[in-house]
């Protein structure tokens, strides 16, 4: 377990290979939604495979503050005593969502439909991220949400406002915006329809359907009608493909690697990383494809194979949006040049993932050309060196895998947030063959 009073530094020895068969922790997107929809349902919802990482735990703590009784998590199992769509009660203080953009944006929509006020806040990173993308369309529905100057958190979500359904075409392909509007739509008069400019993860739509709430889907449109009910159900959360991605890349780049990742969620709105690695020449095979609770799942077998640079098709960007830090490491180890465009969203994640990855790759001797909406990465030889993750969990884990191909130790600073999405990453990756040591640092005085 990570010591939350310290800011760990990873030291990763060069070389090695990854092998074994294991299951990475539960899907973060589905874990958030399981708690939210379970809380709003009538009856008890049992969840298995819940992600016990800080982001999903922030959502869970929020619903406890909103008066929902939740037992667990115990080894990924939860029992949520649903209170029904209108059964939440006002929290006794601000809701602190830590590092989690998904929690804040989805809750902005859900809480806009309540009879009471709520304040949503988070850490420094979350308080820098754009919230206007949800508060503007929610205002069109009749919500009253106050933001800090610049449209950032803290958000004061006023309750007791009647909401009306809207028809909204999203300017960015965002599952968080789509989900926020659909959740507000549960409380709105009439129909709420959201159009996505490119396919984004559809866990909200699938899970609402699993809870017996009708969702209409028509091409790029998703729609709900307010005033229905959610019926409790059982949810089996698969392993998170976004966490699996570090091992897919690590095993692809490290000669001699051979890994099986079990029970991975392979919803087609999430498998861009598999398509991109396939285009780069990776050896990845899906075994025993099956459907679990309305979500496709498979065991993923990966073996090392030389990769080559590619121009990443823009249509794959939203389908791999969280996997780019790992994909950039694959590109750095590939023969030739990889070009990414159409990915300006990476600049407003937990960190500016284009700038922070470009700096880290440069520090490890790789030639890169960052662009406003992407990056060009020239595959080369990784030296050792020190990189700063800027508190971004995915950047820390991506650079840990880079050491498999570096000539000297890779040191990664500011790894405290790895626990947000992947508790146990250090131990699991060590068991798989990574030479990772964790050094704990006391936090700096404010
Ligand atoms: O809906 C979700 O669970 C998520 C959607 C994506 O964000 P955007 O909707 O901002 O693209 C993704 O980056 C995030 O990690 C999780
Ligand atoms: C972008 C991410 O999460 P969130 O937006 O929920 O902070 C992520 O996990 O990579």
From TrEMBL:
Location relative to the cell: Cytoplasm
Top-level class of the enzyme under EC nomenclature: transferase
Reaction(s) catalysed by this chain's protein: 3-phosphoshikimate + phosphoenolpyruvate = 5-O-(1-carboxyvinyl)-3-phosphoshikimate + phosphate
Stretches assigned to coiled coil: none
Gene: aroA
Name this protein carries in UniProt: 3-phosphoshikimate 1-carboxyvinyltransferase
Residues making up the signal peptide according to the UniProt record: none
Positions annotated to bind 3-phosphoshikimate: 28-29, 33, 174, 176, 322, 349
Matches recorded under Gene3D superfamilies: Enolpyruvate transferase domain
One BP annotation, GO: chorismate biosynthetic process
InterPro entries to which the protein is assigned, alphabetical: Enolpyruvate_Tfrase_dom, Enolpyruvate_Tfrase_sf, EPSP_synthase, EPSP_synthase_CS, RNA3'P_cycl/enolpyr_Trfase_a/b
């Amino acid at each position: 377990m990570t010591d939350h009073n310290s800011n760990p530094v990873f030291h990763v020895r060069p070389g090695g290979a990854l092998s074994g068969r294991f299951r990475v922790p539960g899907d973060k997107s589905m874990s958030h939604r399981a708690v939210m929809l379970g809380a709003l349902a009538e009856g008890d919802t049992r969840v298995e495979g819940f992600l016990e990482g800080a982001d999903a735990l922030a959502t869970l703590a929020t619903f406890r503050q909103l008066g929902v009784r939740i037992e667990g998590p115990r080894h990924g199992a939860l029992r949520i005593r649903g209170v029904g769509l209108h059964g939440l009660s006002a929290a006794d203080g601000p809701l602190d969502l830590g590092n989690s953009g998904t929690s804040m944006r989805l809750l902005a929509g859900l809480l806009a439909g309540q009879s009471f006020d709520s304040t949503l806040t988070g850490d420094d990173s979350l308080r820098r991220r754009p919230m206007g993308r949800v508060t503007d369309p929610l205002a069109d529905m009749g919500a009253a949400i106050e933001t800090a100057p610049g449209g950032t958190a803290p958000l004061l979500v006023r309750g007791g406002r009647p909401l009306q359904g809207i028809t909204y075409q999203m300017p960015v392909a965002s599952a968080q915006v789509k989900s926020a509007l659909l959740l507000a739509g549960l409380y709105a008069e009439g129909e709420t329809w959201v159009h996505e400019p490119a396919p984004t993860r559809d866990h909200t739509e699938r899970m609402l359907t699993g809870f017996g709430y009708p969702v209409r889907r028509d091409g790029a449109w998703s729609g709900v009608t307010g005033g229905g009910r959610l019926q409790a159900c059982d949810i089996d959360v698969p392993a998170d493909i976004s966490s699996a991605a570090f091992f897919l890349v690590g095993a692809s780049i490290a000669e001699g690697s051979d890994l099986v990742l079990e029970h991975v969620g392979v919803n087609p709105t999430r498998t861009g990383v598999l398509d991109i690695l396939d285009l780069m020449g990776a050896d990845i095979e899906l075994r025993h494809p099956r459907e679990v609770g309305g979500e496709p799942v498979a065991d993923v077998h990966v073996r090392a194979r030389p990769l080559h640079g590619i121009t990443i098709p823009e249509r794959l960007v939203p389908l791999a949006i969280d996997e780019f830090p790992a994909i950039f490491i694959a590109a750095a180890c590939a023969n030739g040049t990889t070009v990414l465009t159409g990915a300006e969203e990476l600049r407003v994640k937990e960190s500016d993932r284009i700038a922070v990855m470009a700096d880290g790759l440069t520090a490890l001797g790789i030639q890169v050309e960052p662009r406003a909406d992407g990056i060009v990465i020239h595959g080369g030889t990784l030296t050792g060196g020190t990189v700063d993750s800027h508190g971004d969990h995915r950047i820390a884990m991506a650079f840990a895998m880079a050491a498999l191909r570096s000539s000297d130790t890779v040191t990664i600073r500011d790894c405290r947030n790895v626990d947000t999405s992947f508790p146990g990453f250090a131990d699991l990756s060590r068991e798989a063959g990574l030479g990772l040591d964790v050094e704990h640092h006391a936090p700096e005085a404010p």
